[in-house]
Amino acid sequence: MADILTRADVERIAALARLELTDREAERFAEQLTAILAYADQVQRVDTSGVDPATFTAADTVWRDDQLVPSLDRDRVLEQAPAADRTAGLFKVPRVIGS
């Protein structure tokens, strides 16, 4: 069976990951991680000796034929978009990364 993780274990792991946890979160995560490890241990003990390995390749995939469908009208969409650059045909959006 999987070892029981203590609150101290969780706090050490959180420190390595540079996470700040409240006391309540550390206790809750200790319980949850212990349950996850116990389940993983249970899965590892399942006898699969009589089961053939499953294989799957892209060649097994059934692809549908492409179908042309009408798209939104670019001018109409740009008209309704705030801060759109109609000459370039682009939307201007607020910076998300590095802001």
What does this structure look like?
- The chain has 99 residues and is mainly alpha-helical.
- 39% of the residues lie in helices and 4% in strands.
- The chain contains 3 helices and 2 strands.
- The chain has helices at residues 7-16, 23-44, 74-80; strands at residues 84-85, 90-91.
- Strands 1-2 form a two-stranded antiparallel sheet.
- A hairpin with a 4-residue loop joins strand 1 and strand 2.
- Helix 1 crosses helix 2 (23-44).
- The longest helix has 22 residues, at 23-44.
- The chain is flat and about 60 Å long.
- The two termini are 46 Å apart.
- The model has no long low-confidence stretch (mean pLDDT 87).
Topology, please?
Elements: H1 7-16, H2 23-44, H3 74-80, E1 84-85, E2 90-91
Helix pairs in contact: 1-2
Supply the key terms:
single chain, 99 residues, mainly alpha, Histone, subunit A, two-stranded antiparallel ribbon, 3 helices, flat
* Tally of DSSP β-strands: 2
Mean pLDDT: 87
Give the radius of gyration: 26 Å
Which spans have pLDDT < 50 for at least 5 consecutive residues? none
N- and C-termini, Cα separation: 46 Å
Give me the CATH fold name of the domain at 7-44. Answer: Histone, subunit A
- The percentage of residues in β strands lies in under 5%
Mind summarizing the main beta sheet? 2 strands, antiparallel
Helix content: 25-40%
Strand and helix order: HHHEE
Structural class: mainly alpha
How many DSSP H or I helices?
3
> What would CATH call the architecture of the domain at 7-44?
Orthogonal Bundle
Class of the domain at 7-44, according to the CATH hierarchy?
Mainly Alpha
Shape estimate: flat
- In spatial order, strands of the major sheet run 1-2
